[in-house]
Amino acid sequence: MSAPAALRELLLSRITDVPDHPQPGVVFKDITPLLADPVAFGALTDAFVDLCARHRVDKVVGLEARGFILAAPVAVRAAVGFVPVRKAGKLPGETLGQTYELEYGSAEIELHVDALAPGDRVLVIDDVLATGGTAEASLQLIRRAGAEVAGVAVLLELGFLAGRQRLEPGLKGAPLEALITL
């Protein structure tokens, strides 16, 4: 799914490029101007709420950290639960963890063991799909918790980084929906 042209243009107009961040050669996609614009942020939230309704979700999972910002208002508007997936060691209490590979090492994400119930239909929300490692690990966590992946929704997909190709086997037929693909 791609956003309608007017929504796509509104959202793109509020995303800025920051060259050489966090390291030389990387162009960081900064969504903070979008978040500061209530019309653009509201339109983005509405688009994700529509996906919740279409996929009949029970909970939305937000991936640390910008995914939290996007997923929380979606959960409120869609009247579904919000579940944060965090970097290892950030959640109190008992957690499930999933390690995944990065370009130069590995990382781990966690969710609370009781955050998802067996059979919950879950939509994963994040700001950017780049290489797909964090999203792929989140799908594994969701299934280990006994929940069903209803789909993954992102504001922006960086197609040249092939995250979709990495993620598709783990989706097992669930949709990956990017409002904007570059």
TrEMBL record:
GO molecular function ontology, one term from the record: glycosyltransferase activity
Task: Please tell me which top-level EC class this enzyme sits in.
Answer: transferase
Write down the Gene3D superfamilies for this protein, in alphabetical order.
Answer: 3.40.50.2020
UniProt superkingdom: Bacteria
Q: Where is the Phosphoribosyltransferase domain?
A: 56-156
Q: Which residues form a coiled coil?
A: none
**Known EC number:** 2.4.2.7
Query: Which locations, inside or outside the cell, does it occupy?
Result: Cytoplasm
Please provide the record's keywords in A-Z order: Cytoplasm, Glycosyltransferase, Purine salvage, Transferase
What reaction does this enzyme carry out catalytically? Answer: AMP + diphosphate = 5-phospho-alpha-D-ribose 1-diphosphate + adenine
Q: Please classify the protein's predominant subcellular localization into one broad category.
A: cytoplasm
Q: In which pathway does it act?
A: Purine metabolism; AMP biosynthesis via salvage pathway; AMP from adenine: step 1/1
Annotated CDD domains: PRTases_typeI
Note one Pfam family from the annotation: Pribosyltran
Quaternary structure and interacting proteins, as annotated: Homodimer.
Function (record text): Catalyzes a salvage reaction resulting in the formation of AMP, that is energically less costly than de novo synthesis.
Q: Which family does it belong to?
A: Belongs to the purine/pyrimidine phosphoribosyltransferase family.
**PANTHER family recorded for this chain?**
ADENINE PHOSPHORIBOSYLTRANSFERASE (PTHR32315)
* Protein name, per record: Adenine phosphoribosyltransferase
Native species: Streptomyces kronopolitis
Report the gene name: apt
